[in-house]
Amino acid sequence: MIVVMNSGANKIQIDNVLTRLENLGFKIHLSEGVERTIIGAIGDKSILNEVALEAMPGVEKVVPILQPYKLVSREFKSRDSVVKVDNLEFGGKKIHIMAGPCAVESREQLMESAEAVARAGATILRGGAFKPRTSPYAFQGLEEEGLQMLAEAREKTGLKIVTEVVDPRNVELVAKYADILQIGARNMQNFFLLKEVSIANKPVLLKRGPSATIEEWLMAAEYVMSGGNYNVILCERGVRTFETYLRNTLDLSAVPVAKHLSHLPVIVDPSHAVGKWQFVKPMALAAVAAGADGLIIEVHPNPAQALCDGPQSLTPEHFEELMNDIRKMAETMEREL
Ligand code: PEP
Ligand code: MN
Q1: What average pLDDT does this structure show over 246-253?
Q2: Measuring from atom 5 of ligand 1, which residue has the nearest CA?
Q3: Any idea which ligand is nearest the CA of 131?
Q4: Beta partners for residue 3, in sequence order
Q5: Which has more confidence, 53 or 145?
Q6: How far is the CA of 143 from the centre of ligand 1 (A)?
Q7: What pLDDT does 78 receive?
Q8: Lowest-confidence region among 131-135, 141-145, 261-265
């Protein structure tokens, strides 16, 4: 539930409400605005009647949150959240493009990719050092050596780094190098991993599971937020349907729906959605038109030689063309690139 305090409520009144709620076992999330203080309280609301919170001095009203996800919901926070990645802001006017190879394969491959995507206007470099692969015989990633290369690419280009963490035991290690911790689609409901990133001091990019409903996806975000990490960026990357021509079916309606139900920023991964580079551009542009706050796109200097996801990777030339088109679409949508 949300306890809205009067605009004139004083500190003692606010502290009294907080103490009352805490003594009853509620978990508190405080939002101190310029106008008024709003207290989010998560716990057993069946005891609410006994508490008679609305009668306490300084309380304007008590509003229950009807959705199963609480901190994530628009009911909890009506205004869009802006997630900060150092000096970059997700969820504001600017659209951010994350781009780079599926996997970090070598220093040369990564540096070439990083320089190309930075030149074209991306602000974040993507690249997996731990790769969740369908086959145990496929390339599994360079692990810490890959993370070090990502950090080196950041030094050289100024790009921020997003990279996937697949194991709760590696969260600390990945957080040491990354600016954003990526939770992959296959791990969206790995609740131990979600709990671990909820106590990491880094923003989280939470991909939607291939078979997850929007509600399950938002519940996964609730795990991260309820642990204390409010910096969550949602990512739609296609879901599994009866259609087999493409790798997945991009559920673009999930963008406005997630933004309607939640205050969190939402980005789109057209690369993993379509699986074929020819279709990345139309879906990237459509995602911006649908209101996405950013995109994550695979780019490889030589897609034919890629160790992972070559068929869906754009060449640096195609990526540059795409960025020019995204710029125009962003302008149409009154956004900035
Ligand atoms: C990725 O971004 O490299 C990746 C593995 O994506 P997903 O988790 O969406 O399949
Ligand atoms: Mn990939």
Answers
A1: 98
A2: 184
A3: 1
A4: 39, 62
A5: 145
A6: 16
A7: 87
A8: 131-135
Residue indicated by tokens 């991260």 = 224
The predicted model scores a pTM of 0.94
Which atom number of ligand 1 is nearest to the Cα of residue 102? 3
Q: Is the CB of 128 under 6 A from ligand 1?
A: yes
* Residue spans per domain, the chain: 2-63, 83-332
Beta strands, E only, 112-244: 124-126, 160-164, 180-183, 204-207, 232-236
Question: Per-residue pLDDT averaged across 40-48, rounded?
Answer: 81
Structure tokens at 144: 């810490």
Question: Rounded to whole angstroms, how far apart are CA atoms 281 and 114?
Answer: 20
Whether pLDDT at 51 is above 70: no
Cβ–Cβ under 8 Å, residues 82 and 91: yes
| Distance in Å, CA 71 to ligand 2 centroid | 30
pLDDT at residue number 248: 98
Q: Whose CA is nearest to atom 6 of ligand 1?
A: 184
Ligand 1 site, residue 238, Cβ cutoff 6 A: no
Topology of the domain covering 2-63: Alpha-Beta Plaits (3.30.70)
Question: Strand 2-5 vs strand 37-42: parallel, antiparallel, or unpaired?
Answer: antiparallel
Q: Which fold is adopted by the domain 83-332?
A: TIM Barrel (3.20.20)
From the CA of 236, which ligand is nearest? Answer: 1
- Fold match flag (2-63 vs 83-332): no
